[in-house]
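name: query_chain
kind: protein
chains: 1
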Amino acid sequence: MKKIALITGVGIILSCILLLCLCMPALAQDEEQGIAITAIKPYHYEWSEEYDLARGSPWFNLENYVGVTVENSRNATVESFEVTLYTDDEPIGSKPVEGLSADDTIDVSFEWEPEGEDPLSWADTAEGAILSYTDTNWDCTLKAVVVEDGKEIAVNETKQEVAWNGYMADAPLENYEHDTVKGGILYTSGDGQYRSGDSGDDGTKYGTSYSINYDLEIEDGAKLARLYIYYTWSKPSGAGEPKAPKIGVTLETPSGNSEDLSMDKSYNDIKGDLPGSSSYRYHAWGTYAYDITDYMKESGTYVVCVTNLNDGSDEDFATEFSFAPPAILLVYEDTRSPEREYWILEGADILIGGRRGDAGFLDLDECRNEAEFRGEHLDLEIEEAVLCVVSPWADDSEDDVIEFNGGELGRGLYKGYHHDWSSSEDIKGISMSIGAGEAQIGIAAIDVTRYLDDYDNKVVQGDDGDNMMPANAFLVITYEKEEEVEEEEEGGDGTAGSPSITAWSPLESVVNNTEGESRTFNISVNQTVEISWQINGTEVQTEEAITEAVYTSTNAVAGTWNVSVIATNAITELHDLHTWIWNVTPVPTATPTPALNITTTPISTPTPVPTTTPKPKPALTPSSEEKEVAAAPAEAAAEETPGFELVTSLFILLLVAYLIRRR
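structure:
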């Protein structure tokens, strides 16, 4: 019995030991790990801790973020580990973490910019665009891994959908025409107003039409003419793919001729397939463009009539839509006008920035439509350069921004949304006008002469929380007439153009001084200018907003100097130049070391460069000729070294004494 009890006791002890051995590795593993990934949070703008939700889902081709939360449940601080993030097993990046205290958490953030394609495409017809929608959304797996000492100690993953956000700037305006004309450009919406499909306005429902009148003066004929229809809220017949309008357009000339127009080109955009949004995400916006050049032959009133052609039976098009008043762009010829160079850009890019939740929390920088006026402008004297932009649904709020060549021109510059508006008569080469109230088109005309680059000028239209659709951008450069240029070259007053240096002193073109003397130069100009004094091409003095200028050197340095003064008009950037040759000869006595006042290096053929930016003044360095002149006396002194004859005599006496002694 005792034996049985002994055996039983031994068995129990062995079982306990075995159970303990089995548990020990698990306990040791739990102690070793104690690290967990408790959350993977993908978002576009930020993660709301209050609601535990993303403020903006991740979007294609934009910078998004993924936050990975790591928790340390160990009883001790974790010295270091690495967190790696993957999408469908493709690494996004890795980040080291140094030191995580016991019972503490840390959020590790990763930048993520997945690439994707616009789901919208289309084919143009005479009556409108047939849109096609392709589901480009991406369902992916985000996986985070924690590695410590080369071993994975924590893994977690989540599913995420990535979509295209059509409210971002994704459609740069396209160049339609770049040419020159002796004439001008006119843009007008006539007496048209915004037409709402929801309100059942004429032209938006099947069988209804809307007419707009345009009073135009055409001087010597039309070189080019376009008609633009800007549409919005184009609704499909049911839930599903986006549809564009099917429109009939007629143009009646002042002579009474009626012409049926065929659409030449369309530009279309959609909100995008935003997850969780309502069906209106499929509504389309866009611009229809028509070539009407052949019909613009006379001055008078032109009438455009817009009709909805879809009774619901054509499934390729929308059944109803809204639109801003159609606008006419006219490039007209006028032999009395100067030469003008122009660019015409077209497109449609619906934008909503300002971190609005209904648009996916996009920022202004993500809603900046670009338009580039490609190529180099003519190498002629520029009188004025004017930038014009058109953006339906833009207004004078501070949310709408216009930039040119990298600089902000201003906010709230668009006019015409609620009230009629015309550009200033001081603007040359182009006239912009909204002819009636509630057109819901924003336009602007801005003098950009001072900001113009020689080539590839660029305009940006940005939305910071409003809603707009950049659709057109025009750049018009007016060049000075040949007779005006000749007058300026012959010494005309040039006040409106190139400045002219009308008086100067010294009168002589070549002036002379002796080293150490003082010399003053001065000029008078026919208009307020910026002045740059240059010696041998190096700027030594600048002045602003003056008509008279003086430069004095109080201690002339030997050499031949080219003294130039450049007078520049700060607005037109045109300039005039006067130059003296200044010869400074050394003092006949021993060469002194003068205090340096002219701070440049003499050269024989200087090239003055117009500038208004002061530059560091280099120390004076003698020219090569001066160095040779300075070296000549030193060489002569070496040839006449005193004591040479005495040495020779002593040598001869010693030689004679030596020979006598040997005898």
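note: The chain has three domains: 28-162, 176-479, 491-638.
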